[in-house]
UniProtKB/TrEMBL annotation:
Gene3D superfamilies for the chain: 3.40.50.2300, 6.10.250.690, Winged helix-like DNA-binding domain superfamily/Winged helix DNA-binding domain
Residue stretches making up the OmpR/PhoB-type domain: 125-224
Pfam families on file: Response_reg, Trans_reg_C
DNA-binding residues (ranges): 125-224
Annotated Response regulatory domain residues: 3-117
InterPro entries given in the database record: CheY-like_superfamily, OmpR/PhoB-type_DNA-bd, Sig_transdc_resp-reg_C-effctor, Sig_transdc_resp-reg_receiver, WalR-like, WH-like_DNA-bd_sf
Organism: Deinococcus aluminii
PANTHER family, alphabetized: DNA-BINDING DUAL TRANSCRIPTIONAL REGULATOR OMPR, REGULATOR OF RPOS
Modified sites of kind 4-aspartylphosphate: 50
Keyword annotations: DNA-binding, Phosphoprotein, Transcription, Transcription regulation
Protein name: Sensory transduction protein regX3
Length: 230
């Protein structure tokens, strides 16, 4: 689950941000100032930062972040009531990756944060290998012990995503977001159906899975490959 830090001094706005981001399946740490923020940011995947803060301004703090070798690449969405073009440019030139003006819609907030998180993902390798499973991402080709798997595009994308992140558990909501995309209107049952179909392709027994494991109350993961899987 991606971790987003929010720094916003207005309690009402802060709780609105927390509510909508958590509803989108993100883990949120919400702070009212930059004091003590560094510890939270060490595990953050993105930062939503208000321009006007008590003590040190968000803009000043952003400049310090960009000078910190450990945090300089952290994606930052600047949140502010300042709508003038010159001020937006100042925020972007100071290191913000994106800019959202108050008042904002929940849908736009979530879409912009998700876009930052996607852009921050490292480029995926063209080839994936997981025990007897081999995947060529460019050719959309998957093979099990040399035999080609006849997968739909979405089955392939889901299998590739879980294989790339083997060992990590993803909720159904996260998988819908990361594989189907934020605009997909279907429900979580879609994920269950695709996992069932993939298990059939992989000859995977859900009671004793070699590949796709259900983690009760949390979601699904691709099991790390060990000698026990074979």
């Amino acid at each position: 689950m991606s971790h987003v830090v929010v720094i916003e001094d207005e309690s009402t706005v802060r709780e609105v941000l927390r509510f909508h981001l958590e509803r989108a399946g993100l883990r949120v740490s919400a702070l009212d100032s930059v004091q003590g923020a560094h510890e939270a940011l060490t595990t953050a995947d993105a930062l939503v930062l208000d321009w006007m803060l008590p003590g040190e301004s968000g803009l000043g703090y952003l400049r310090r972040l960009r000078a910190d070798p450990d945090l300089r690449r952290l994606p930052v969405l600047m949140l502010t009531a300042r709508a003038a073009e010159a001020e937006r440019v100042e925020g972007l030139e100071s290191g913000a990756d994106d800019y959202l003006t108050k008042p904002f819609s929940a849908a736009e907030l979530v879409a912009r944060v998700r876009a930052l998180l996607r852009r921050a993902q490292p480029d995926a390798p063209e080839q994936l290998s997981h025990g007897p499973l081999q995947m060529d991402l460019g050719a959309a080709d998957a093979r099990l012990a040399g035999a080609r798997l006849n997968l739909t595009r979405r089955e392939f994308d889901l299998l590739a995503f879980l294989t790339r992140h083997a060992g990590r558990v993803y909720s159904r909501t996260e998988l819908l977001d990361r594989v189907w995309g934020a605009d997909f209107l279907g429900g979580e049952r879609t994920v269950d159906q695709h996992v069932t179909q993939l298990r059939a392709h992989l000859n995977d027994d859900p009671a004793r899975p070699r590949f796709l494991e259900t983690v009760r109350g949390k979601g699904y993961r691709m099991r790390p490959w060990t000698d026990e899987n074979g």
